[in-house]
Write the structure tokens for this entry.
Amino acid sequence: MSRSLSTWTRTFTRWARAVHERLPQRVWGIVFGACFLGGLGIRLAFGETGAAVLMQEGLALIGFAALWIAVQPVAERWSASPLRRLGALIVAGAGLGGTVALVTFIEPAGEASSTGAVLQRHGLVLMEMAFVFFLLLQLRRLALYRRTRVAQRNWRLMLLLMSIAALTAFGHPPSRDPGALQVLPMSAAVALMVVNSFRLSWIVDLSVRQKGAGAALSVGVLVAVSLSMSKSPGSALPVYSYALHWFALQAGIFGILYSLTTLLSLVFHLPTTGDVQRKTDETAVLHNLTQLVEQTFDAERLSKSIAAAPVEAGLADAAWLALSGGASERLIRDDATEAPQVVAAAPLAAAEAERAVDLETLFAKVRRTQAPLVLSHARTDRRVHTPTPDAPTPDAPTPDAPASLLVAPLVARGTFAGALFAARDVARGFEDDDVSSIQAFASQAALALDHARLFEEQIEKERLERELDIARSVQERLLPRRLPEIDGLALAAGSTPAREVGGDYYDFTRLDDGRLAFIIADVSGKGTQAAFYMAEMQGLFHSLSRLKPDPTAFLCHANDALRDILEDGTFVTALYGLIDPQEGTLTLARAGHCPAALAREGDAPRLLRPDGMGLGLAPTVLFKNGLTPERLPLRPGDALALYTDGLVESRSSDTSGSDPGGEEYGYDRLLDALQRHRCEPPAALQDGLLADLRAFTAADAYDDDLTLVVLQWQGADDDDENALRSAPASNNAVASITSEP
């Protein structure tokens, strides 16, 4: 039966909505006016006769139904808070009561058939029905606050049952008692009134002050509706239409029920309003922190928001955020140490927070346990009794020592980054749910700060990549694009940096007297700084090799220049030499660099290791004393390999030997490979050396910058061997090295 009634209600509602949508609002107003004036005319013309009474009451029901349809859109457009709606009901009830009292005092209304009495009765009826409609429309907005389909169904079903109960009184005189036909739908309507009276969702959003005001207003509405029911306006409505009287009576009952449940609910909610508001604030603060994680990467702003979160949520009287030295240095401060530091506090200053507790001890405790630490009686804990200069004894607490203290760890991806401190001015100020809430803030804070750190690292990484791209482009321009062509000498050269930018450098220049000056150098370190010193070496080589081509003079002047620009702990190793093609000699000087490797026909391969220390390590006088150049006559077929330490220090991937890091390639293997390939053209010789290195390391990439220069002397008078021109060989050789995977 309940299901069929609900189905019938939905059908009736759809029909009523369709009729309402097809007819404009103005038409319904005209219908009401016509019916109201028609009923007035019938009463004036025919008096209280039976047929006239029924006709007038029928017009009244049709007219006020049309008025209800007409005023609903107007009421929907009025946007007001629940408290304003309650206040408006009180004003409307007071206005109705005052007007009725004034009018009935002047001329009491009743069943008098005089023209004045009829007009007075119709006026009072219009006022009462206006109040009834206003009451229902305002209670409708309150009962359907955050509406659901069930709530809408219950409201419509209540109005339908009220209307049915009212229609059962159609044509009955006021003196007749209600029968079972009237009581049954009215009882069902009252039951739904009770259900709708508990639709009080709007109360939850009220503050303590608003709930107090709402309780007072609900009392006013209760009184206003009760008075309107206790004395009908001059007893006009029952005489005018007994059916409308029943409808108004039911509306009054609903008004009383809703006002009463509102009053009781507000009274019962008052003690817990603070807790509800605090939970609401907690949710809002946590939501704000979540938004900060997604939108803000400013570590300082994040830290301030995190420190203020427990205070804004009402969980603490003061709070501060402390980060470990490394974290605070990365995120906020440039002068941070390894000790924990307070980076943000609210509402007190960071310095006051650091004085309030033994920060390092508490910090170490939560770092070790990575669990919240609660001091319910903080003023009796020695970790809070931090001595101050003004304290009479070392055990005296600071003036601002908290009575309760909570320390929540900040842990992101398993890494401890800091702690969130929350303080209360009362002992045992933190309950279990408070601890859980503040720990939730700390977890969100750890995530936010970790995101900020990752964002900063990404920005720094992108900046470094841009710098490396620029430095790599500059480095490529520093190395020679073409190798010089010298009769009797074939060359191959190339360099492969281990990173985007390396510190290896080689170059050649042909002097005016026909000699060839060459250099290979290695700057300590890697990256853009090494590339910068590499650029300095290029400038020194091209200027000094022409002014001071002698190896000793060149390296001494280079040492002078580099000592002024190199940072402490940075040095440059170099191998500088001169080849005189007319005399067929090689003069070589070494400044701490790897020795040159020489392979010649009929002799065992050997290393050329003239004495000398690295550039920039010692004053020039001491540097010059340790420098011993070596002059060597060249023979046809001599093969000379110049290289950086990345070649001989490359390690095998096989770690099963005595060296856990893998065995080094070493000088012996280099000499053996050079001897095997010495008769090949320079490009092939160079490829053979690198192939031997890759076979040893079993890897395609190098652990360190690797530069290899091959010089092959064919003899100045051997025309057949002069076909091995250096320029084509160098191009192939460079390509073969720089294109190594």
About this structure: Residues 586 and 632 are 5 Å apart (CA to CA). DSSP finds 23 helices and 15 strands in the chain.
